[in-house]
Structure formats: C-alpha cells, structure tokens
Amino acid sequence: MRTVAAAVAGALCGAGWFVSLEPSAQLACRDSDLECLVPLIFLIVPGLVVVWALVAWGLLRVARFSPAWPTAAAGAVASVVVLLICVFSLRFVHVQLPAESGVFVVALAAAGGYALAAVVTAGYGGRRDRTEHSGQDG
Question: At what angle do helices 102-120 and 2-28 cross, to 10 degrees?
Fold first, then answer.
C-alpha cells in the first residue's frame, strides 16, 4: 500500500511538473530568443523539479507516509532517471506518440520513480523501539 501511495503522489507531481513547464517558460522567456534556452535548462526545469519534490513531500506527509522526505528526494531523482530512460527507449524504437501524451509519459515515469523510492526507503530510520544498540534480540 505504501508503494501505491508513493506512486500516486509521484504521478500527480509528475503531471503537475509537466503542466507547469510551459507557463514557467513563458514567464521567464518573453522573447523567443536562444538566450532564454540556458536559463530554461539550468534554472527553470531543475527549479520546478525541486518545487514539485516539495509538493510530493507534502502529499506524502498528508497521507501519513513514513519516511516522507527521503522518499520525496529519492523519488524526484528516480523519476528523472526513469523519464530519461523512457524517452530514449521510445526514440530508439521509433515510437511516435501524439503531442498530448507527454503528460502521461511523465506521470507514469514519476509514478515508477516514486514507487521505486518507496521500496528503497522502506527500511530507513532504524527500529522504532530504540533497542538497536542494547543487545536485545527481540
């Protein structure tokens, strides 16, 4: 269930990230010059990843997901990696998707990234009963 909750939060934030790209780019780049490309790639896109990772952290906290912050941080990184793998794989096999399907590809990649992060961070935080160093076996 925790993997599903992380995947839903990742899908929502991945779709939100994709939808927020165009308005952010239009706000920062009023002219259609190539001078705008560098700030867009190095400032706006990573900034939006951080913002939507914080939103994912908030969604995971509201859902009482523990640990929320490592899952949100690892989920953002894993989502970017999964998205790059998906994009290069689709291009390699020459799949032509409709223009409107980008949000679904990003949402699915983010869902996979956050689900992977939930599995990886499942044992984070040690034991809750604080007996990990007292020599007790139970």
Answer: 130
